[in-house]
Amino acid sequence: MPSPFPGMDPYLEGYLWPDVHNALSAKIRQLLTPLIRPRYTARLNIYVVEDVSPEGDIGILYPDVEIMRAQQHAREQPPGMLRQETGFGAVTPAALTIPVILPIDIQLTSVEIRDTAQNQLITSIELLSPVNKREPGLQQYRLKRQRLYQAGVHLLELDLLRRGTRPISHPTLPDVPYLITLTRAHTGKTNVWPLHLKDAWPNIPVPLRQPDDDVVLLLGSAFTEIYDEAAYDLSLNYQEPPPAPALSDEDKAWVRALLDRR
Length: 262
Fold this sequence. Notes:
With 262 residues, the protein is of the alpha+beta class.
């Protein structure tokens, strides 16, 4: 069964997102490979980042952490048992007990297009994760963007998450749920595809090394295929609101009308 949404499905922005991230990266590689061979290859680059501030995604992206924290609270001693007598007098109970949130290791996947002659990185396709959109990961990712541009690498970024701060900022950027950007090497310019919930997936150019022409990434085909292959419809409850952040009143009405037609 396909997703009921014409473009990005906001219900996939929760605990399923790591699977969506990996599946979509692999599907993009699969679709691009026959278009770029034999001069280029598409490789998955898997790297680990430490999420040192996962609090905002507990219960959204990290439901297991929320369950663990609840279990820890259940094992805590009641306040009355905290007062103990010692040789130096009574211990004053703590006024507050807060959970310890430890860093979480996150595996992220990007798609790298390299030339087969010298294995040189030509284009990087980055699918943003929540850790890329909040500090300190946000600043680290912005530094990565700078390094890629300075190295003469084309950068295609797919920001398919509504929460967090976008790594790219400009006063003319519209306030939209999703954003796709393409920064071509040595141009000083970024092409932007703003996406609303109502918008269908665009077909995006993927630049190669000159004088080779761009190839076209069919994002709609990629998303439709992974949604079906992973059977995401079996894990999603479209009767409930999508994961945070809350939709605007206009988007809520549109989503409800869309889902009622299913």
